[in-house]
Amino acid sequence: MAFEYCHLLVKIDPYNDEWIDNLKYFKNATLKEKTLIDDEDDSLTISLEDQDYLNKLRQRFKNVSLDNLDDGEENTISKYLCAHGHIFTHEETGPLKPACFVKEGTNVFGKFVTVNVERIFNDPGVIILRSIASDKDILHFKMEAYNELQTATVHNSETGKLETAKYRITQSSWLDKNHDSITRRMKARVVVATDLTLESAEMFQVANYGIGGFYDTHFDFSRMSDVALGGNTGFPRLGSSIKCSKV
């Protein structure tokens, strides 16, 4: 799918270097001879269609230890969830009925802060923080980050250096939590919503995937736009996912 869209984009603008690089990457990935790991991933993906295998997998997930899955297995299941939505059904617990409520608190200046919360799962608890940012806030973040966007990098565990990688085709920028009044207001909402302090947290990261952009399985915590395809948040041990939606 990504290869097809990139191919169409290059036809529209054949002089766009970024789209040409993306097209080359997707083409090489498509034509690459399958390795043993690829074969194992394919085998696991096929197994996810088998009910007996799913029953065994569900039994494993009853133990929520982080050691349940190896990295490769969890990565494959996560990708499957992003494409297909779920691997388990939840009939035994009844139809899923999201519950919505408002969480209230105050910021460091004593100003009242409210956050709309939508509960998706009870056990384990999975929630979506709705209206955490207004359209005005989102536009502000985009404008502040725009001129600082750079090709995203990853940490090379062997060299200890940051470098670009073919499995992360995106641009990113960083904003300090105390950058201005809007970032401070966003920080206050996150604190109220999560009951966590942000004293040791990273700066706000703004990422632009563009059209045909790609990053391997990773963590994202908010979306500043809706997308037509992809971008689901997968929960491998729940065997389900949540469709990508704007905050």
From TrEMBL:
In this protein, which residues make up the domain named Prolyl 4-hydroxylase alpha subunit? 124-247
Name a GO molecular-function annotation.
L-ascorbic acid binding
Question: Mind naming one GO cellular-component term on file for this protein?
Answer: endoplasmic reticulum
Q: Which keywords, in A-to-Z order, does the entry hold?
A: Dioxygenase, Iron, Metal-binding, Oxidoreductase, Vitamin C
Q: Which cofactor does it need?
A: L-ascorbate
Identify the InterPro entries for this entry. P4HA-like, Pro_4_hyd_alph
What is the protein's given name? Prolyl 4-hydroxylase subunit alpha-1
Keyword Signal carried by entry: no
Q: Which domain of life is it from?
A: Eukaryota
